[in-house]
Amino acid sequence: MKYSELAKLYEELGKTAKRLEKTDILSKFLKDISEEDAPSVIYMLQGKVFPPWSEKKIGMSSRLILKVIANSSGISQEKVESSWKKTGDLGKTAEEIMKTKKQSTLYSTTLTVKKVFENIKKLAELEGKGTVDKKVSLISELLTSAKPDEAKYIVNTILETLRVGVADGTMRDAISKAFNIDVEKIQHAYNVSNDFSQVLISAKKGKLSDLKVSLTKPLKCMLALKEDTIESAFERTGKPAQLEFKLDGFRLQIHKHNDQISLFTRRLENVTKQFAELVPIIKSHVNGEEFILDSEAVGYDPKTKKYLPFQNVSQRIRRKYDIEKIAAKIPIEINVFDIMFYNGKSMLNEPFKERRELIEKIIKPEKYKIVPAKKLVTSSEKDAKKFFKESLELGNEGLMFKKLDAPYKPGARVGYMIKYKNVMETLDLVITKADYGEGKRAAWLSSFTLSCRKEDSFVEIGKVGTGIKEKEGLTFKQLTKILKPLIEKEIGKTVILKPKIVVEIAYEEIQKSVNYNSGYALRFPRVKRQRLDKSSKDCDDIKKVEQLYKQQRGKK
Ligand code: AMP
After folding, report:
1. Which whole-number Å values give the CA distances from 340 to 261, 295, 356, 413, 475, in the listed order?
2. Residue 383 C-alpha to ligand 1 middle, in angstroms?
3. Is 182 helix (H, G, I), strand (E, B) or coil?
4. Phi/psi zone of residue 402: left (φ > 0), alpha (ψ -120 to 50 degrees), beta?
5. Which ligand 1 atom minimizes the distance to the CA of 402?
6. pLDDT tens, residue by residue, 145-170
7. Which one of 152, 246, 403, 433 is the catalytic residue?
């Protein structure tokens, strides 16, 4: 396929903000894509050349691209730079510069999608001496052959700033429409294979059900629904259910294939290097040639052996250096709670009870290394309450309820897994700062800094934008109107406010934080309502925050 066809499609997609129209345009385009072109076209439509689980990054700087634009157009760097200042978008600049280029040197060869895809991929694969020169020549090769609009999209793809990129939902709907197949079926095929080009090809051949779990790629995790009472959790799962502690670590999908272990996060990033110390543990403690396990990786304090909150472990996920040092500081215990594949067989359609039995059979448990998640199979609400209390006292978030006869549904938020957490008392806090929004919210204050009392002054504890509505209830427009007369000072997009307006805030948890001068932050805060009956003198104080912090999850 010629790259110009893809550029034309980007152009069309860019002209509409309506999802239905985008789906229409895309579905027509997808009908004719060949098997050979599918991977490159699909990735590039999404503005990518690598899947999310790849460790490869394009990693090109705007500066270097600017140089290449200058070189391949014969126009001075100063001119390119001044155009960039005006457009604020290097892709757009590439387009403008290429338009001014002399006709005689234009379009030496016709670019194909595959050529563009391959060259951009190579940028991430080059290593060692002379790399920069090689990268420059790979990009030059594309830009010298590119028409102005093609240059724009090539540059934006390299910089990973392609705004017309197609989101997952639109891609799914477009494939569904192109081949007249149920959206649900397409979504399931995608959740299992995680690869729209495979979904496209299988849909075209009418062989969607052939798509299998792959050992070399992560699949989407099954997600949990939330219930606020033990009774309603049981209603979802039926009785008896398997209850497990809801541990506060991070989701870790473990693959073994050809004696190799790969580790993926819930967002499907490959974190095998970051958690290299887990590889030999998995190899020696899990029996099996091939498997995919679902687990929660929890950090603990090596001295006290107490579990640490996610906040502490999260630093390990992005860390690329001194891995051994940090592994010793924040070691991990893997709590395995599901299995999706075992020795050549997909386990997705096996009932949870049997998947759990298999987990217990193949894992040699060792505390602080790898264990099956602690479980309680019960029909008793009283026992569930006791188990919940025990979980909180150990510093966990609450409980998970699991339906014993349920299959594993990748990517779906279904009632096979229910989370039940401690519901925190709300806080009444005062708005002391706010920020103007972006796009359609540019005229409104859309993010609000919350503070609590500390003696005679106020200290900040978080920012909130959630819970305020676009249309009904307490709206951004309304709140902006109420707050505007209270503005004391404006700094850029931020306004400093007289502390007058009190709002009731719900949240998941209180955390220690260095980002706010109260020393605390709220996790997932949302506005419940304005407290018209309270003045800032009546809002909650730091002592109340401290007390709630200590009470939650059995922290003493
Ligand atoms: P949430 O992130 O609040 O939607 O809760 C779901 C997450 O809880 C999952 O993605 C897991 O990372 C985590 N989790 C902790 N313990 C368990 C468990 N025993 N079973 C399943 N998920 C768990």
Report:
1. 15, 11, 11, 16, 44
2. 21
3. coil
4. beta
5. 20
6. 999 999 999 999 999 998 887 989 99
7. 246
